[in-house]
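Our consortium's second objective concerns turning raw sequence data into structural hypotheses that experimental partners can test. To show how far this objective has progressed, the report includes one record in full. It was chosen at random from the queue rather than selected for favorable results. The single chain below, 259 residues long, was entered without modification.
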Amino acid sequence: MLVFFAMVILLLVMVLTFIVRPLMWPSVAVKADDGTEKREIFRQQFDEIEQDKIIGMLDTDQYNIAKTELERRMLDELGSTEKVAAVAKPDVRLAFTLIVIIPILAIYIYLVIGRPIAMIPVADKPAVAQEAAMPATPETTQASAANIHGTISLAPALASNIDPAATVFIYARATQGAPMPLAIVRTTVKELPYTYQLDDSTSLMTDLKLSNASDVVVVARIAKGGDAKARAGDLQGVSAAVKPDGASAVDIEINQVLP
């Protein structure tokens, strides 16, 4: 875990460096004139008339006239030869805004999108025991009206070579309609056999509740990959179709290996 967070921090620093550095220390863009080649031609012509004067082909007056004419042509064709430098101003406010926003956005995406498993309740102790310890109120009575409870166990034939820390997902889904879990909890293999309870308080979405379904099946799955997506090699147990009225216990044995 420490290595993971170190990599995340390193990547954030790299991203911020590439984004913020140009804002804090913008480069100077120098735009040079495009008369370099023409100036070189005129320089050669000046050298030629200078050489003609030395060897006697041009006298002083002819040399002065030729030089003056060449200078006039050069000024007409080249004009101003100054270099223009465009300096960008640093945007300190935007840089510091990005320094704050990017890490916050990265953490939010990781918690909400990158780790959907974090949204699933963790039952640290049996849900039935928790329910018994809570004082009876009209709200809890109504919530417990639609529930499923029972015990999850692991078949002895599959118990070998299973990581005790592997995640166990226990969820109910409707027999008809979308396969999305109506209620879900998670625990670990070392807690098996485990007494569970599913009700509206363990729903992930307000519009998908256990109390809205007439018949459901309960699935208990050991996720070797650690997330809620089923993969080949996961261990699973599935109940028959039941009504979520809490009338009787729904015990499940995890006795299948997903192909």
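The partners drew two points from this record. The domain at 127-257 is CATH 2.60.40 (Immunoglobulin-like). The two ends are 30 Å apart (CA to CA). Both points have been shared with the crystallography group to help prioritize constructs.
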